[in-house]
From TrEMBL:
One of its GO terms (molecular function) is DNA-binding transcription factor activity. InterPro entries: HTH_MarR-typ (IPR000835), MarR/SlyA-like (IPR039422), WH-like_DNA-bd_sf (IPR036388), WH_DNA-bd_sf (IPR036390). This is Transcriptional regulator, MarR family protein, putative. SMART domains: HTH_MARR (SM00347). Residues 8-147 form the HTH marR-type domain. Pfam families: MarR. One of its GO terms (biological process) is response to stress. It comes from the Bacteria. PROSITE patterns: HTH_MARR_2. SUPFAM superfamilies: Winged helix' DNA-binding domain.
Length: 154
């Protein structure tokens, strides 16, 4: 029997399923920690940079400005981030992560590692690196074609 697989269709279907699964994982994570994966990425980026201009956040995260605002507001209200005005330009704002923000981030990170550990238990150990390499290869190809800005941790 001839293998009639359409690889483009298979990749699109797989990426779609991965996206749906990650959204489900995001909702589950939010139930446990009170922050979404995107909010965690934001906390991580700000934590790594110590202080972050609000104007840079959307580009560094690869999301729209309006999405950045929607993600950051609950973090400010919960006291996980603090907003500051620039001394040299009162129109410019910066954000810094608070001690509480650091604690929530570390809790979310620990829970994510545990969750990913459970997922990895479902995959043969000798295939773990292959999974990472395959996802990295696909991401690199997308980033070359679509010139996506470098995101958190890259």
């Amino acid at each position: 029997m001839k293998n009639d697989i359409n690889i483009e269709e298979k990749i699109i279907d797989t990426v779609r399923e991965l996206s749906k699964t990650l959204r489900f994982f995001d909702r589950k994570s939010q139930n446990n920690t009170g922050v979404t994966l995107n909010q965690c990425y934001m906390l991580d980026l700000i934590r790594e940079n110590k202080i972050m201009p609000l104007s840079d956040l959307h580009e560094r995260l690869g999301i729209d400005k309006s999405t950045t605002t929607r993600l950051i507001e609950p973090l400010l209200k919960r006291g996980l981030l603090e907003k500051m005005k620039a001394e040299h330009d009162k129109r410019a704002s910066y954000v810094v992560i608070t001690k509480l923000g650091e604690e929530v981030y570390e809790n979310a990170r620990t829970r994510s590692f545990k969750s990913i550990g459970k997922v990895l238990e479902q995959i043969p150990q000798n295939k773990h690196l292959q999974v990472v390499e395959s996802i990295d290869m696909l991401l690199d190809a997308f980033n070359v074609i679509y010139k996506r800005p470098v995101a958190v941790g890259a």
